[in-house]
Amino acid sequence: MKFAMLARNADLYSHRRLVEAAQERGHQIEILNTLRCFMNITSHRPTVHYDDRVIAAGDFDAVIPRIGASITFYGLAVLRQFEMMGVYPLNESVSIGRSRDKLRSMQLLARDGIGLPVTAFAHNAKQADEVLAAVGGAPVVIKLLEGTQGIGVVLADTPRSAKSVFEAFRSANVNILAQEFIKEAGGNDIRALVVGGKVVAAMQRTGAAGEFRSNIHRGGSAKKIKITAEERSTAVRSAKIMGLNVCGVDMLRSNHGPVVMEVNSSPGLEGVEAATNIDVAGKIIDFLVENAPRGRTKTRGKG
Questions:
Q1: Model-level pTM?
Q2: What single string gives the DSSP state of each residue in 220-243?
Q3: For 143-185, what is each residue's pLDDT tens digit?
Q4: Which CATH superfamily groups domain 184-279?
């Protein structure tokens, strides 16, 4: 089979591993810089242009979107063009769009009964008192809706500091949400990698000393962990609700069971493969081989 990967940096560990896994299985894979693609949106004959080359329907069997958060809008437009051409997407554009909108994703998860931290969202900084009360008061976690890898996440220890952060973010005209701080998690979280409706690997991430964020990119560490049946079910259900074939589901262990912090549609593979010694990249390629010829997707045509 022949795969295209939409990615800007071919040297990232996750991208190199996906290329290796595909080639080890006898498949062809080509990395296309997402921003060097442009689209010819023509009735009945949609195409993608890449530099001086025209990519038409049938040139690739499947596309692997590894779209950075900073280029979500354009990246999803390119991915939709591949979908229009009948190329099977590892994750569909609609599903990725859902996951990138933190507020919408949490609303969807909450609607279907997934455990979440108590979360509040408001536009006006004058509502800071009401927002803080809604999430149980300080300490409180305040997040930018567009943040990734722990960037744009602040722990406010007191009501005064929470109000200051809230006002500062609003003065910058950015959208934010506030969440209860799950103290009992102890600076740890769980990432469960879901591929094709199954948890294929799970790790526990621990924040660096003095850091409440557990992201490996921010100095955190990771180890293999055996998750509970409830945590496994929560991860699988979350992926299904979002319509994602492949994702990382980030959870905290709270006093009232697992709560989902985020569903990541382009999870990094380095931390989880190192911690678990599981060939996650290979499992992703195997999923594509099994499903791409069928051309079946879950959310096509749904906005």
A1: 0.86
A2: -EEEE----HHHHHHHHHHHHHHT
A3: 877 655 556 788 888 888 888 888 787 777 767 788 888 888 8
A4: ATP-grasp fold, B domain (3.30.470.20)
